[in-house]
From TrEMBL:
SUPFAM superfamilies: Putative cyclase. PANTHER family: CYCLASE (PTHR34861:SF10), PTHR34861. GO terms for biological process: L-tryptophan catabolic process to kynurenine. This is Cyclase. InterPro entries: KFase/CYL (IPR007325), KFase_sf (IPR037175). It comes from Mycolicibacterium arabiense.
Length: 331
C-alpha cells in the first residue's frame, strides 16, 4: 500500500499552483479555450440530446453517509390554498401567512404554486468545487483553508466557475463494457491509469487537452435497479490523478459516489480520498459525482461514438463548495 511519501511525490508532480496566475480559482478549466468549444460543437451530428442528471428527490442516492440526506421538497404555495387555507384556515394563519395569497386569490381566477427544496449540495448529480477538499491548511493555488468560513468559501467556491466554462468535448470511457461486466464494476479492483488507456484504445478515442472525461462504472445503473445508495463499487485508483494531469483534462466525472475508489486498502496509508486531495487541491481539477450515465452509455454502445459536446454548468450558489448540475451531452 502506498504511503504519504508516495502521495507527496505525486502531489509535487501534478500541482498546478501558479500555472494560470496567483489569483486563479478555476484550475484546469483554463484548458477549455474558444477553439476547444468550437471543436466540441462540431461533434453534434445527429441531434441527440441526453441528460446525465439524476432526479433530485426523496428517492435519491444518499445513504452512504449520515451527514448527507436526500433532498426534501416542500410546497410553499399551492393553488389549492384558494379553496382551503384561504377560505377555511384559522384566523391567525390567514393574518400571518395567507393575507397576500387571499388578496391574490380573492374574486379572480389567478392561481399559482411555489415550492422550495432543502438539500445538501452534494446530494445528487453534482460538481465538487475546488474548495470541497484540501489538506495542510491550503486550498488550490495556495489559498488559505480558513477562507472557507461559516459564511461560505471566499476562494475557490463554485460561484467562481463561469457557467460557460463547463462546456467542452466530453469523452465517455465505458469501463463496464471493457471489463465485460453485466451491470457495474464491483468493488475490489480499482480502475488504473493503464486501464483508462486500454478502454480509450478499445473505443478508438483519444483524450486531449481540455476534455471532460466521463467514466462509466455502472454504479448509477445498478442504483436505479436496487435503490441502494450505500452500495460500494469500483472507482478510479488514486494514481489516475497523474493520468488526468498528463492528458491535461479539464474535469472528470463518474456515475458513482466519489469518482475515486473508496476502498482504503487501495488508497494511501494514513489518509482518505487521496485522489480528491490531488485533483481538487493540487491540480485544481473538479470532480463530478452521481452522474446518470445509463442513457449516454447505451447511445455510445449503439453508435460506437464515445465523444460529444458536453455542457454542465453548476448552479452558481455563492460561496458553495459544490453544486447540483444537469449535464447535457449532445451528439
Ligand atoms: C467527500 O465525501 C469528502 O467527498 P465527495 O462528496 O466528493 O465524495
Amino acid at each position: 500500500m502506498a504511503n504519504l511519501e508516495d502521495f507527496r511525490r505525486v502531489a509535487d508532480d501534478v500541482r498546478n499552483w501558479g500555472r494560470w496566475g496567483a489569483d486563479d480559482e478555476i484550475g484546469t478549466l483554463n484548458f477549455i479555450t474558444a477553439d476547444k468549444v468550437a471543436e466540441a460543437a462540431a461533434l453534434v451530428r445527429k441531434g441527440t440530446v441526453i441528460s446525465l442528471g439524476g432526479d433530485f428527490g426523496s428517492s435519491g442516492p444518499q445513504g452512504a453517509f449520515k451527514y448527507r440526506q436526500n433532498p426534501v421538497h416542500v410546497m410553499t404555495v399551492d393553488g389549492g390554498d384558494a379553496n382551503t387555507l384561504v377560505q377555511y384556515g384559522p384566523q391567525w394563519l390567514r393574518n400571518a401567512v395567507a393575507s397576500d395569497i387571499s388578496a391574490y386569490f380573492a374574486d379572480n381566477p389567478f392561481r399559482f404554486n411555489d415550492d422550495m427544496i432543502v438539500m445538501p449540495l452534494q446530494a445528487a448529480t453534482q460538481w465538487d468545487a475546488l474548495s470541497h477538499v484540501y489538506y495542510e491548511d491550503q486550498l488550490y493555488n495556495g489559498f488559505p483553508a480558513d477562507s472557507v468560513t461559516s459564511f461560505g468559501a471566499y476562494h475557490c467556491g463554485i460561484d467562481k466557475v463561469d457557467g460557460t466554462g463547463m462546456t467542452s468535448r466530453g469523452v465517455l470511457l465505458d469501463v463496464v463494457a471493457h471489463r465485460g461486466e453485466d451491470v457495474f464494476c464491483r468493488p475490489g479492483n480499482p480502475i488504473t491509469p493503464a486501464e483508462l488507456d486500454d478502454v480509450a484504445a478499445a473505443q478508438g478515442v483519444s483524450i486531449g487537452r481540455g476534455d471532460i472525461v466521463v467514466v462509466n462504472t455502472g454504479w448509477w445503473t445498478r442504483f436505479l435497479s436496487t435503490g441502494n445508495g450505500a452500495e460500494v463499487g469500483a472507482g478510479l485508483h488514486w494514481t489516475c490523478a497523474s493520468w488526468l494531469h498528463e492528458h491535461e483534462v479539464a474535469a472528470v466525472a463518474a456515475d458513482n459516489l466519489m469518482v475515486e475508489d473508496p476502498n482504503p486498502a487501495n488508497g494511501v496509508e494514513g489518509t482518505f480520498l487521496p485522489m480528491h486531495m490531488l485533483c481538487l487541491r493540487d491540480m485544481g481539477l473538479m470532480l463530478g459525482e452521481y452522474w446518470n450515465l445509463t442513457d449516454l452509455t447505451a447511445d455510445c454502445r449503439q453508435d460506437g461514438v464515445y465523444e460529444f459536446l458536453l455542457t454542465a454548468p453548476p448552479l452558481k450558489v455563492v460561496g458553495a463548495v459544490g453544486a447540483p448540475v444537469n449535464p447535457i451531452a449532445m451528439k
